[in-house]
Design brief:
Rossmann fold; 5-stranded parallel β-sheet; disordered C terminus; PTA_PTB
Length: 339
């Protein structure tokens, strides 16, 4: 059984209600049907009902048994608008504008998650990442005690790869341009938490740099070393080391020469990049040249699960994101206690 098969099997036991904010997109419709048929989630299609059913009919997609939610339905819209107004009026949001936002799928989806109508939401097949993440931040917000929202990619190696692990995790490859030491520490902490949820092996976190354990003297290397110390203080039992160069973090014989006392070097499965340039370029090199399957970016650090898609996503990409979003709800109280 592959890791994706294992994750899907676990998702089936959760019956997580995942609201899809772009319900009239044919890819979203097909992914919703696939998820419902496989039992990995209970999809909720959000949007104009007439338009959703029209697209489904034209595309030959049977939506039997899948719930369609129209965010402009007066009673529900007014209730969500009131919740949004109460949440954002201190930022200058008026009730009239709250009603406009609540009637839009982009904001109705995270509102449904916040108000416990759904366990998680997925969007971004049509809307930009900036718009999708902004709505989630404004409505769901950052997890209490956390410093920021970040992202990770689940990287599945190709068949016959030299990588021993079922998967690697790269972070942050999508959101934070140049995190400071504290922010890097939170990114590492959240990524390790998600690794515990997704991987069948314990997380071993490499804090990446162009330097290995002081081999280069530069403020950027010091920033990563400081972040490593912060993670160690936050999670004394977590295997984490840094700063490490990428080769020292994953190649055993190089690790033996560069970091012989490290318990992470040469065997890392979590890679925390020092900034967005390195992270975004790194995952795409692994994907395009190394043949890795890159699933993400998966958002982390939010108070409730909400995830973003690429506008170039496939049906399979949406399906996989629904599985990961469902797994992010694992352990939540089934009465959906409100934030």
């Amino acid at each position: 059984m592959t890791l994706l098969d294992e994750l899907s099997a676990r998702a089936r036991g959760l019956s997580a209600r995942i609201v899809l904010s772009e319900g009239s997109d044919a890819r979203v419709l097909r992914a919703a049907v696939m998820a419902a048929d496989d039992g990995v989630a209970v999809p909720l299609l959000l949007g104009n009902a007439e338009e959703i059913y029209s697209v489904a009919e034209k595309q030959g997609i049977a939506l039997a048994g899948i719930e369609v939610v129209d965010p402009s339905e007066p009673a529900d819209c007014e209730r969500r608008a009131a919740a949004l107004f109460a949440l954002r009026q201190h930022k200058g949001l008026t009730l009239e504008n709250a009603r406009k936002l609540a009637s839009s799928p982009l904001y109705a989806a995270p509102l449904m998650v916040r108000e416990a109508e759904a366990d998680g939401c997925v969007g971004g097949a049509v809307h930009s990442t900036a718009d999708t993440v902004r709505a989630a931040l404004k409505v769901i917000g950052v997890k209490p005690g956390n410093a920021l929202v970040s992202s990770f990619f689940l990287m599945i190696p190709p068949v016959n790869s030299a990588i021993d692990s079922q998967a690697l995790i790269f972070a942050d490859c999508a959101l934070n341009v140049r995190p400071n030491a504290e922010e890097l520490a939170y990114i590492a902490s959240d990524t390790a938490d998600n690794a515990n949820r997704l991987l069948s092996e314990p997380p071993r976190v490499a804090m990446l740099s162009f330097s290995t354990l002081g081999s280069a003297k530069h403020p950027d290397a010091t920033r990563v070393a400081d972040a490593t110390h912060a993670v160690e203080a936050m999670h004394p039992d977590l295997e984490v080391d840094g700063e490490l160069q990428f080769d020292a973090s994953i190649v055993a014989d190089i690790a033996e020469r560069k970091a012989p006392k490290s318990t992470v070097a040469g065997r890392a499965n979590i890679f925390i990049f020092p900034g967005l340039e390195a992270g975004n370029i790194g995952y795409k090199i692994a994907q395009r040249l190394g043949g890795f399957l890159a699933i993400g970016p998966v958002l982390q650090g939010l108070a409730r699960p909400a995830n973003d898609l690429s506008r170039g996503c496939s049906v399979e990409d949406i399906y996989r994101m629904m599985v990961l979003t469902a797994l992010q709800t694992e352990g939540a109280k089934r009465e959906y206690a409100k934030i």
